[in-house]
Amino acid sequence: MNLIRYDAVNENEYISYIQEWEAEGKTIIPGASDRRGRSLFEMINKWNFDETDETIINGFVPSTLYFLTDDDSRIYGAIHHRHILNDNLTLHGGHIGYGVRPSERKKGYGSLMLKLLLERLAHSENKTYLLTCDETNIASQKTIEKNGGIMEMKIEFEGKMTRKYWINI
Length: 169
Known about the structure:
This protein is α+β, with helices and mostly antiparallel strands. It has helices at about 10-25, 40-50, 85-90, 110-120, 140-145; strands spanning about 1-5, 65-70, 75-80, 95-100, 130-135, 150-155, 160-169.
């Protein structure tokens, strides 16, 4: 399994990945991977922009999107690394958000994606990462804890209880 940047993704596999999410009718996680009617070319341009400090003007933070793929380029999931936090991300969202395509859930791919990203981030200046999940999302809790997450607190966010975890690498 490989963790690849957005600009190395196979177009047909990306479309297949997104169509599977769309067929499920639920919100695509992480939201940064959702094409919202755009072509892959348009998305790559957006993701290039997302890595710049110019995103701050629009209320966002610089970020990088990665996809978990196999040797045949099949996409199993996506993981979104936000380089810094703003006030909103400090409450809900954190540095890292991830999602696994519906047909590949409960197979350990979320934990693998997080592990691979943390290995990559070990070479960066920041050594502490915030991750959050809903209190009811047991799979995400287990994924975060398996990768060294220590729960700091539970807070209410938009009417739901949210767990805040920190991972030190």
